[in-house]
Amino acid sequence: MPLEVTAHAASGSVPKSWIIRLITNLTFWVLIAIIAAVVLGVQAPATAVKMEVIGKTFIDIIKLFIAPIIFLTIVLGISGMDSLKKVGRIGVKSLLYFEVVSTLSLAIGVGMALLLKPGHINREGLQMQSAAKYTSAAEKGFSWLEFFLSNLTLQVLLAAIIIGVALNYSRYRWQVIAFLGKISKIVFTALKYVMYLAPLGAFGGMAYTIGKFGLHTLVPLAKLMGTVYLTMIIFVVVILGSILRYYKMSIFKFLRYIREELLLVLGTSSSESALPSIMQKLEGIGCSKSVVGLVIPTGYSFNLDGTSIYLSMSVIFIAQLYDVHLGIMELLSIIGILMITSKGAAGVTGSGFIVLASTLTALHKIPVEGLAFLLGIDKFMSEARALTNIIGNGVATIVVAKSENEFTETPAS
Question: For this UniProt entry, which segments traverse the membrane (predicted)?
Fold first, then answer.
């Protein structure tokens, strides 16, 4: 009798068949939901569009967990650390990493767009939509105050840091930590049950996208979409893969480990939908609670690798579409402007277009109305942006955790 079977017999348990393991796997049901949504979107677009409420409701429920999870994770992480200097060092190191990698992603986006020339296509056959609301919003300019006031994640992050630091000086520190620890367990248990609804969320989001915009809208701008997706794949595999390899980890093992979160993001087109569960997964792989709590929420506002690639490629695409020649200084200006404005492209629907409009306006050379060509396919490229963003933030967390000796090796890693 094989050793494995003997062990199961001794313990009184029966090994599950692959069918049982498959049908009880959440990833399987999310994938089935996405396939079903695509079929419904193609065969019955009108019905598929009505599924939007399902996707939105799921994301709204998940958003209810984001603030308490960020608050509890950061407060417990900081108040449980022995050195506040380490908290400051983790924060500075995270921001430095974000800036370096985000700038690299902008440069890669520009370089790939110049190499593959996605804008060298016939403009006459392209569908245009009005971009007036984005261009008018861009005229107001970017405000860091407005960015902060409209970003709940950053507000909760700041409040949690202040309270976490203050707790270190309180004589009731351990009583509060014990209480918040119990609350944290309750919140994460509730989240576990909500995540069983993930297939419904993915179905609603994908069905609406296919039904509303239709696969036929992809054909005229297939070259741009292909270039964006290819660039993001190269960025994840080569750049992020090389960073993880330096820290003795495999990008492919990491992607397999977070496959449920990736499928959820693919279905909902929102990296926020997977924020609470990716925080759990990163703790599960070995990152300390304090590093996860500080890096992930900050990264969702300041480390948008996928968005950076898309924004830089879109600027070059519009320039190529209108046969506008860009010199070295103008290309450097695009990267420099986007280094600042791209930080405001988080969390608000349509904010990416406002950033693009602001960038084009600042350059005074590329027609802003070129945004109208991108509106029809933007929804289909949001999946690539969101996927790259969440992978990038996961890698950033691992890098900071390992560099700070706040990483415990586990079988998952």
Answer: 26-44, 64-84, 96-116, 147-169, 190-208, 228-247
In one-letter notation, the amino acid at residue 208 is Y
Distance CA 273, CA 130 (A): 29
DSSP 272-303: GGGHHHHHHHHHHHTB-HHHHHHHHHHHHHH-
Neighbours of 263 (CB within 10 A): 23
Give the residue among 46, 21, 37, 45 at the shortest CA–CA distance from 199.
Answer: 37
Query: For 151-194, what is each residue's pLDDT tens digit?
Result: 777 788 889 889 988 888 888 888 988 999 899 899 888 988 88
Q: Domain 3-403 maps to which CATH number in 3.20.20.80, 3.30.457.10, 1.10.3860.10, 1.10.530.10?
A: 1.10.3860.10
- Mean of pLDDT values over 75-85: 78
**Distance (Å, whole) CA 5 – CA 314:** 57
Give, as one character, the DSSP assignment of residue 287.
B
Report the sign of the C-alpha dihedral through residues 316, 109, 344, 371, in that order: positive
In this structure, the chain runs to a length of 413
Would the pLDDT of 378 be above 90?
Answer: no
Largest CA distance in the chain: 77
Tokens of 208: 């609406």
Q: How far apart are CA 354 and CA 140, in angstroms?
A: 10
Q: What is the DSSP letter of 322?
A: T
How many angstroms separate the CA atoms of 315 and 19, rounded?
48
Q: Can you tell me the distance from the alpha carbon of 321 to that of 120, in angstroms, rounded to the nearest whole number?
A: 6
Record the tokens describing residue 244, joined without a space: 């993880």
- Residue 392 C-beta-side C-alpha neighbours within 13 Å: 35
User: What does pTM read for this prediction?
Assistant: 0.80
Contact between 270 and 59 (Cβ < 8 Å):
yes
What is the number of alpha carbons within 13 Å of residue 135 lying toward its C-beta? Answer: 13
> Domain spans of the chain?
3-403
